[in-house]
Amino acid sequence: MNASAKPERTRLSAEDWEDAALKLIADQGVGALAVEALARQLGVTKGSFYWHFRTREALLQASLERWEQYGEREVIEQIEAMPDPRARLPELFRRVAHELAPHRVYAALLKALDHPQVVPVMARVSQRRMEFLTNIYREAGLPPEEALNRARLTYAAYVGFLQLNFTLGLPRISHDEFDAYVEHMIRTLTPA
Amino acid sequence: MNASAKPERTRLSAEDWEDAALKLIADQGVGALAVEALARQLGVTKGSFYWHFRTREALLQASLERWEQYGEREVIEQIEAMPDPRARLPELFRRVAHELAPHRVYAALLKALDHPQVVPVMARVSQRRMEFLTNIYREAGLPPEEALNRARLTYAAYVGFLQLNFTLGLPRISHDEFDAYVEHMIRTLTPA
DNA sequence: CGCGATCCATACTCGTGCGTATGGTATCCG
DNA sequence: CGGATACCATACGCACGAGTATGGATCGCG
What we know:
Number of helices of chain A: 10
Shape of chain A: elongated
Mean pLDDT of chain A: 91
Oligomer: homodimer
Low-confidence stretches of chain A: 1-7
Helix content of chain A: over 70%
Radius of gyration of chain A: 19 Å
Order of helices and strands of chain A: HHHHHHHHHH
Largest sheet of chain A: none
Strand content of chain A: under 5%
Structural class of chain A: mainly alpha
């Protein structure tokens, strides 16, 4: 049934473990990150793990740094490359709304803010995103003060949405209804 | 240092354990809910606990139900008693923003949505609040569709705010700045 | 007073998951 | 082709937290 489904016959590297860890975190949260479970999933045993990493903590650390690195650089750059500043916000909203998969790790880490290791990472990532958002609002015409507060509001709505949907499954919303919601969001959070 | 600071010399009841559990959940999350830790904090040992509850799971269940009961009934009733529908939303916003303490349990449970026991409770509570919010928006003049989406957006902002502040400590915002943020929120999320 | 019910302490068992020790197998390179 | 190095398996020790067993203390009440 759950025998080794992955025919990865090559030896493993540290990066393989980190990727598997991130996948597991996205699926079941940081708390589920256990070395023996990971090993089973990779078709090996703990003996392998402790060759690559000194401890479980080290794996978490490395995985988080790897995740932070990969980042959302593409999205940011693509949005900032758009000529019309007013068009950036709607595009950003729609894009994030329709590509939720990359945000699963962020959502999982959001629920693990009691682990001392994830706090600094999340603080850095969230801070960068907030600054990015604030900039777009300024470029869209909002005065600085206003732009900052609007960015706070928007980002909070994003974070809350992740929680209410991935984990809690509030009355499952239909696809069309979701699109309508996104458009409503654009209308009320975006300067005309 | 942390010796029994509570001079509660009377015997304990199940409710005492539930209250202590909720306090611990609010402070350190559901994951920190351990019977021996709780017992220490109450100045007794496990022997006491297992007289009142069959299992740790039972305590969690009872605590959650107790929390759901206490609820936010007062707030809802007071807001609905206000004569002018337009005045309700700003009042609700300001009130929630300035009395965050009661929301700490909700914030903690938000991060424990992987525990099967908390999901139904949070689903019910969130659903009730959402319906309440939707109603207020309708009474404030928004068409039904619009009211529902606005309630979704507002509630998501609320949830996101809890995450970003209790747990993550984004660049510590000052008191005045926070008030300005709340007013900004009211302006953009509330029908004129 | 005294006795039954209620509440609690002490001392265990048991499962789970991290980390270690040590030996085995595969791979690369001279 | 043989040995050094990289990778992995097996078998442990150990800590920690849930749950159990059993006896002791304390309260209510006739």
